[in-house]
Amino acid sequence: MHIGILTGGGDCPGLNAVIRAVTLALINECDARVTGIERGFLGLMTRSVRPLDAGAVAGILAEGGTILGTHNQCDPFHYFGAGGADRSADAMATVKALGLDALVAIGGDGTMAIAHQFEALGLPVVGVPKTIDNDLYLTDRTFGFDSAVAVVAEALDRLSTTARSHGRVMIAETMGRYAGWIALEGGMAGGAHVILIPEIEFDLAAVAAHCKAREQHEGHTIICIAEGACEQGAGMTVRSTIAASPDPLRLGGVGHVLQQRLQPLLDSEVRTTLLGHVQRGGAPTAFDRVLSTRFGWHAAQLVKAGRFGRMVALQGDDCTSVAIADVAGRNRRVPHDHELLQAARGLGVSLGRV
Ligand code: F6P
């Protein structure tokens, strides 16, 4: 059995732990040959591959990023852009030339959508859900999310001491795309006083009133805002558009927009920190190392059992699998009745609405 592995889309902590687990399990349990495809689906187009064995994956469990490299703009079905040509036949020619029996695709919704199309061309595929955003459909957790939340929590801890000392309003902007998971969990872990997420459009007057009340009593406020959050009646703040990307919008900057809107309404100084790619880099937390290892081992079990077209998923505490077809191109956002939102409200955290 000859299995290819690739990592697609943006990187995140835990990718190497998955590569390691899939490789070791396939070699030890199936005596398989394993090949790493470099830079996501681009490697299938350019035939950039490398053999993976126990030596190649030694010592990478705790390493951030991906040893295989990744690419978030290469979709062989729309080669570099929505209007791009369908070059999937070239990728399939690589699959044939290498003699790959199946592919393990580690990635987010975009990667799953592409993997699903390859499945339809006859390439057996198993998916592993990756993203710091935690927004993949039908899995309660993606690996990488816990590591991003830990970064946000630590950042808020640090911002709190300086905010308290100066009596300032400190805004921290997180990643997360169209979902508020990172801001919600990171904000709660870091004791934010205001948490603003894309799923709940915020009312500027309500945010200002919360900060004003804190100016009178506690003196400082920590606001944790997701990059996709928006004020009522306004759209999301788009930083740039990358036409060639399967998801062309790059969000970012809403923290600074909020600072400008909020400052005239308050006496205390308002400052903003954009957490950015710091949330995506670095070593995975112990939780993510274990989750990635479970996911990787489970992916190998699916390959072993010939259960293709499946994506590994965590549902409750159980590692299971779902059809890639049911996941491809879909997102999971924070439901309005989520327990953590209720807990936030109960603890007096403002979610930007009265
Ligand atoms: O999907 C992961 C993510 O980090 C998002 O949170 C963020 O919006 C996006 O990727 C940033 O992408 P890029 O690194 O291409 O700017």
Task: Offer a few descriptive terms.
7-stranded mixed beta sheet; 2 domains; Rossmann fold; binds 6-O-phosphono-beta-D-fructofuranose; 354 residues; 4-stranded parallel beta sheet; alpha/beta
Outline the structure in words.
The chain is an alpha/beta fold and 354 residues long. The protein has helices at 15-30, 42-46, 88-98, 109-120, 145-166, 181-189, 204-216, 254-262, 286-304, 324-327, 339-346; strands spanning 2-7, 33-37, 49-52, 102-107, 125-129, 169-174, 194-196, 221-226, 238-241, 249-251, 270-274, 310-315, 318-323. The strands form three sheets. A seven-stranded mixed beta sheet has the order 3-2-1-4-5-12-13, sandwiched between helices. Strands 7-8-6-11 form a four-stranded parallel beta sheet, with helices on both faces. A two-stranded antiparallel sheet has the order 9-10. Strand 1, helix 1 and strand 2 form a beta-alpha-beta unit. The protein starts with a strand and ends in an 8-residue tail after the last helix. Bound molecules: 6-O-phosphono-beta-D-fructofuranose. 6-O-phosphono-beta-D-fructofuranose binds next to strand 10.
Give a quick summary of the entry.
By secondary structure, the protein is α/β, with parallel strands linked by helices. The protein has helices at residues 15-30, 42-46, 88-98, 109-120, 145-166, 181-189, 204-216, 254-262, 286-304, 324-327, 339-346, and strands spanning 2-7, 33-37, 49-52, 102-107, 125-129, 169-174, 194-196, 221-226, 238-241, 249-251, 270-274, 310-315, 318-323.
